[in-house]
Amino acid sequence: MGNRTFAILKPDAIEKNIYGDIISRIQADGFKIIGMKMTKLNERTATGFYEVHKDKPFFPGLLEYMTSGACIPMVLVKENAVADFRKLIGSTDPIKADEGTIRKDFADDITHNIIHGSDSDENAEIEIAFFFNRAELIGNAGLNCC
Ligand code: UDP
Ligand code: MG
């Protein structure tokens, strides 16, 4: 079981100025943030990140959403990080998400679902490398923490 996962606070989390509340929920669930930046995806980077979905009918809407404003990619550490984080964020569709999950409490709809979480250890490492180099992460021969 890996201990790292990758998250993105999607553009509506920034637009609505609620990303601080969401980050607090993530910290309260025991995750440590070892990498975080505010950035904006363009069509090329959003397509690269969501390559696996490029033939899906929802892809154009997903692209429009993800390029609509700033987002916050993050690297998170906790034991059993991938599964625990997927549990914390809830189902892709906020209507189907369990009570108390981040998507249930903050997301508008299945496209505008406020947050991304990796679905496997392998994808977590691929997604981390898409946004961060080692020197940008705390520990791992990167930034010193305390
Ligand atoms: N998405 C959408 N319509 C769908 C399924 C997904 O707009 O029917 C969007 C949504 O923003 C989702 C992203 O595409 O988070 C990636 O989809 P995936 O199935 O990987 O969901 P996730 O892993 O984010 O729960
Ligand atoms: Mg996914």
Describe this structure in words.
- The protein is of the alpha+beta class and 146 residues long.
- It has one domain: Nucleoside diphosphate kinase-like domain (Alpha-Beta Plaits), CATH 3.30.70.
- 38% of the residues lie in helices and 16% in strands.
- It has seven helices and five strands; from the N terminus they run E-H-H-E-E-H-H-E-H-H-E-H.
- Strands 1, 2, 3, 4 and 5 form a five-stranded antiparallel β-sheet that branches.
- The radius of gyration is 14 Å and the shape is globular.
- The protein starts with a strand and ends in a 15-residue tail after the last helix.
- The chain binds uridine-5'-diphosphate and magnesium ion.
- Uridine-5'-diphosphate binds at residues 53, 58, 61-62, 92, 110-111, 113, 116, 119.
- Uridine-5'-diphosphate is lined by residues 53, 58, 61-62, 92, 110-111, 113, 116, 119.
Share of residues in strands: 15-25%
| C-alpha end-to-end distance | 26 Å
> Judging from the principal axes of the Cα atoms, what is the shape?
globular
| CATH class label | Alpha Beta
How much helicity do the residues have?
25-40%
User: How many whole angstroms does the radius of gyration measure?
Assistant: 14 Å
